[in-house]
Structure formats: structure tokens, C-alpha cells
Amino acid sequence: MEMSARFGDNAQFVARVTIIHVCTYILCGMVFSTLFDYDTLFKAGNAVYFMRSMDSASVLIGPCVQILRGVLFGLVLLLFRNSYEGRRYGWLRLWTIILVLGIIDTPGPAPCSIEGVVYTQLPIEFHIKGAPEILVQTLLFSWLVARPKNNRRVVSDPRKRCVIAVAVIAAVGFSLGGIILTLILGVDVMAGVSDPWAFLVMFAAIAIVAAMTLWYVKRPCKTLSSVCYYLVGYVVLAVIPTVYNFCTGSPLSSWWSLLISALPLVMLGPYVETVKRNLKNL
Question: Residue 211 contacts by C-beta under 8 Å, 6 or more apart in sequence?
């Protein structure tokens, strides 16, 4: 019984670390790529041979890969969890470890590291402009991971934790759906990111689904509630983006979108139902 409880606690910790990593990574990436114009920065000097361009398919897949990276972070941080979690200035201790071992003193010549500055031909501008995102993201990550348990009301509440997870799943699903749609239509993989209003539609859809999830997991297990939840989810995640693409003449205008854009709903459905069942049994 004790072993089962410990396993559940560790699994919850890894899941929390993964969610924190994905959210901080996407947020900081969006902010700093705009502030420092990564599209131009990645083409500066020899950086063009080191980094893939912003219109690469790999850049779109990046947010999805962060789930795997988050899980790996969680598993490693489990090894010395008690040395920083819930301790005074524990976040600073964790950030210092990440800062020194993961950024400044890496074994290989990574950007922003001592080895990278000395042994690579990357322009110094690349190191300087790339550092703020790495520093801020790891600082925010460390603070959220290490803060005391009694300050984690949002993450400790299974309903609110479910909402956060749903938002992440919906964002990742949107990214995957966009990539699949471009491959089917044979258009440029960056066709869907040239319109800033399309991002607004995406964020609005994610916000609505998150709000509906909070409502849904609190409701009794009734067919009408389920129909309402998934119907609204399908409309905001698939129907509205499809209509928007046709109205704006987007290269992604296709009725295939009605099927592919429902991918986030398919991904989050089983998870939400599991959470709902567990809450019912409490």
C-alpha cells in the first residue's frame, strides 16, 4: 500500500513537472522569439548552419517534443527532490543547478555556454540574445517546481490540474493537427502561422475548452453534460477554425480540417473522463 502511494506521488510529481515545463517553454518561446526576432537571429553569421530556420517543420513539432523532455526532467528531479522541494530558497538551489550544469558549464559546446562561446563560430549576438529566454524559462520552471506544497492550490486541486493539462493537450493537438493538414494539402508548413489572428482563434478555443472542462468535471455523470461538453469542444476546436480559414482565404482552407482539427478533442477525451470517474469515487 505504501509502495503504491509512493508510486502515485512520484507519478504525480513527474506529471506536474512535465506540465510546468511545457507551459513555461511555450510561453517564453513565444515572447522571446518575438522580442529578439529569432527568424533573423537564426540566419545571422554561422548560426544559419547551426539552427534550423523558423519555417522548418521541426520548429512546429518542437512543442510536442517538450512533453518527452518534461517527463525526463521529472524523472531526473525525482532523484534529489527532497533537497529543494518546499525548502526556503529551494527554487534558487534548483535553478543554480540547472544554470550551471544545463546552461553555463555544459559538457559540449552548446549556445550560451562557456564551451559554446570558446569553441563554436556562432556570433556573440546569438549567445546574448538567446540567453534571456533560457534564463527566464529555467528560473520560472525552478520556482514553480520547488515551491512549497501548501502554495500549490491550483496544481494540487485535481479539477484545476485537469484544466491545465487539457489546455496543454489542446495546444499540442492544435500544433499536430496543423502539421498533418499541411502535409495532406501539400502546402508550406508555415502557411498556418503567418496570420497572427489565427493564433487568437487558437488561444480563444483553448480558453473556452479549459473553462468547459472545469464545468464538466464538476457535473454529475449525465449524458446531456457529456454531449454539451464534447459538442462545444468540437465547435471551438474544429468548426470555428475551419470557418475562419475559409473566410480569410487561408492556404489551410479545407473540409479536412473538420476531421483533423478534432484531434485535440480525441487526445483529451480519455484523460478528462478518467479524472471525472476518479472524482466521482472520492
Answer: none
Q: Pull the grid cell for residue 124.
A: 556573440
What is the rounded average pLDDT of the residues 263-268? 82
Residue 196 has pLDDT above 70, yes or no: no
The 3 state secondary structure assigned to the chain is CHHHHHHHHHHHHHHHHHHHHHHHHHHHHHHHHHHCCHHHHCCCHHHHHCCCCCCCHHHHHHHHHHHHHHHHHHHHHHHHHHHCCCCCCHHHHHHHHHHHHHHHCCCCCCCCCHHHHHHCCCCHHHHHHHHHHHHHHHHHHHHHHHCCHHHCHHHHCHHHHHHHHHHHHHHHHHHHHHHHHHHHHCCCCCHHHCCHHHHHHHHHHHHHHHHHHHHHHHCCCCHHHHHHHHHHHHHHHHHHHHHHHHHHCCCCCCCCHHHHCCHHHHHHHHHHHHHHHHHHHC
Residue 25: the pLDDT is 87
Average pLDDT over residues 58-85: 85
Among the listed ranges 47-51, 161-165, 225-229, which one has the minimum average pLDDT value? 47-51
pLDDT at 262 > cutoff 90 = no
In this structure, the number of other CB atoms found within 10 A of the CB of residue 227 comes to 10
